[in-house]
Design a protein that fits this description.
single chain, 325 residues, 10 helices, 36% helix, globular
Length: 325
């Protein structure tokens, strides 16, 4: 018997399984607890997704994925029939508004940036916000700002990417901050705070967008994915001339991913460190290390390794809040 804990819609749930429980049995148990059909469940752990075809195997799930019994963080995504009805109502509302064109706005005092011919090839398609919430104009402005962001536009052009739709993710999905469907067919981003009283910081939203853009190439959260994600976070600074060397995004904004979902500065690359070599290390800045070889490191090297561990933890958090499909 093993006790499995998982997170569903922001809630911690648990269930007990036998050592003989198969993947199909496991999914049935989760479906019964969450009231989500098995066909609509998505189970993620350690950067992996439990594949539907695994349910056809008779081998016990704990033999296929022993990490499940060792306290691995498990995230379950799925839409209940009640939630599905709400989404269908929203879709119907959006369809009725597709032909709607808002009246022209007043002329701005500042010139509006337009896209050149090359930019038009690699852009985001339509933008959609949630119609049932207030401040739709501000939500749309955030998505428009992302679409016109010099760093994002530069990345889209450099990698020759085109995203079909950029939409607002429902704040009801509290367990994720964004997802990428079918490698760029659609990207959804959480814009609003959990209390629905305001909006998340622009830098945090943009960092989630870069994470989801990396899923245009790599599906799983493996080393290849993290390498591309770090590359995109560096490129977004280099390609945005307004960032002043990738540090100041505005007069009062600093972009540094070592502090989580707030920005980016690649301390690891600056110091030439190998991310994999320190994945399992333990390190305390300014104190003793559990590894004898740390004793001879300079302050600069200690700072670099501490920053590396922060970035690895940040990436784990990002992976857990991603619902890429």
């Amino acid at each position: 018997m093993a006790s499995i804990q998982y997170t569903f819609k922001g809630q911690k749930l648990s269930l007990d399984i036998l050592t003989s429980t198969t993947v199909a049995d496991f999914l049935e148990l989760i479906a019964e607890q969450t009231q989500v059909p098995v066909s609509g469940l998505k189970v993620m752990f350690k950067g992996k997704v439990l594949r539907p075809e695994e349910s056809e195997e008779s081998k016990p799930i704990l033999e296929q994925h022993p990490v499940l019994a060792s306290g691995a963080k498990i995230f379950v995504l799925g839409t209940t029939e009640q939630d599905l009805a709400k989404v269908q109502a929203i879709d119907q509302h959006i369809n009725t508004r597709k032909n709607y064109r808002p009246p022209p706005t007043a002329k701005r005092s500042q010139p509006v940036r337009t896209l050149d011919d090359d930019d038009n090839k690699y852009v985001f398609g339509d933008i959609q916000v949630l119609p049932q919430f207030n401040q739709q104009d501000k939500a749309r402005a955030i998505l428009e700002r992302l679409r016109m962001d010099k760093g994002i536009v530069g990345i889209m052009k450099l990698h020759q990417w085109r995203v079909g739709s950029l939409i607002e993710l429902s704040p009801a999905e509290k367990s994720i901050l964004g997802y990428n469907r079918n490698k760029g067919q659609l990207i959804a981003l959480r814009l609003r705070t959990d209390d629905l009283e305001g909006f998340r910081h622009y830098d945090a939203i943009r960092k989630v967008l870069l994470h989801e853009l990396a899923h245009n190439v790599w599906g799983d959260h493996d080393d290849n994915f993290h390498a591309l994600n770090r590359q995109l976070n560096k490129e977004v600074q280099q390609l945005d001339w307004t960032a002043h060397g990738g540090r100041n995004l505005s007069k009062d904004t600093f972009f540094d991913p070592a502090n989580g979902l707030t920005g980016y500065h690649d301390d690891l690359e600056d110091h030439g460190e190998d991310a994999q070599s320190w994945r399992g290390g333990t390190f305390v800045l300014g104190g003793g290390s559990r590894r004898a070889e740390n004793s001879g490191l300079t302050t600069r090297e200690l700072v670099a390794r501490a920053a590396q561990l922060r970035q690895i933890e940040s990436e784990k958090d990002e992976d857990g809040m991603c619902g890429a499909k």
